Amino acid sequence: MSQSGQGLPLAVDMDGTLILTDMSWVSFRSLMLRRPWMLPRMLTLEFSGKRAEWKRALAEKLVFDPAGLSYHVEFLDWLTGEHAKGRELLLATASDRLIAEQVAGHVGLFSDVIASDRSFNLRGGKKAEALISRFGEGGFSYAGNSWHDIPVWDHAGEVIVVNPERGLLDRVGDSADIVFE
User: Fold this and answer.
1) CB under 8 Å to 8, separation ≥6 — which residues?
2) Pick from 50, 45, 46: which is nearest to 119 by CA?
3) Is 73 exposed, middle or buried (0-12, 13-18, 19+ CB in 10 A)?
4) Are 48 and 41 in contact (CB under 8 A)?
5) Burial level of 181, CB count in 10 A (0-12/13-18/19+)?
6) How far apart are CA 39 and CA 125, in angstroms?
7) What is the tens place of the pLDDT at every residue in 112-132?
């Protein structure tokens, strides 16, 4: 672990970072296959800018087994080691809380979950604000994979890049303390 990250609580993104998929699309595909008559309502929510409501509506319909998801094994092994050392781990995701809590419960490493809910989409700047409010500027480490994570990394005391989107490492550059590809 980098010197800057020692002792800092670690907030971990879920979609594309902890798991190698996006739960919103897993939920949407499941709905298309099992309840296609609900698609017009879901699409109306998505395209009307009510993304948090859309995620909650999908989460309420989704029945899934978190053990069946594809996890980033090397990163999960590292998290297990960090947890064993006593580091506080927090799942911080834009996915809906109903789904995030199931994944966190399955993984068994996280002391808390912050996530989207029916009225609040915890993504990008909003996620950064929530973590700063809880831990202070630079008072947390953050592991993510997306361009949407840049506003969070801008305020983190340690930058951990996991399974980065194309071109992201070029943008993050030397500010990345740890990289899992």
Assistant:
1) 135, 139, 140, 141, 157, 158
2) 50
3) exposed
4) no
5) exposed
6) 29
7) 999 988 777 888 999 999 999
Q: Cα 62 vs. chain centroid, distance in angstroms? A: 18
Average pLDDT, the chain: 85
Under DSSP, the state recorded for 165 is: P
Q: How many C-beta atoms lie closer than 10 Å to residue 127's C-beta?
A: 26
pLDDT (0 to 100) of residue 122: 86
Query: Which residues in 155-174 are b (16+ Cβ under 10 Å) and which e?
Result: bbbbbbbbbbeeebeeebee
Q: What is the pTM of this model?
A: 0.80
Residue with tokens 């996991």: 162
The letter for the amino acid at 172 is V
The neighbour count for residue 65, using CB atoms within 10 Å, is 8
Cβ-proximal residues to 175 (8 Å cutoff; 6+ apart), any chain: 153, 159
Question: Hey, is 156 helix, strand or coil?
Answer: coil
Instruction: Go through the chain and tell me how many residues it has.
Output: 181
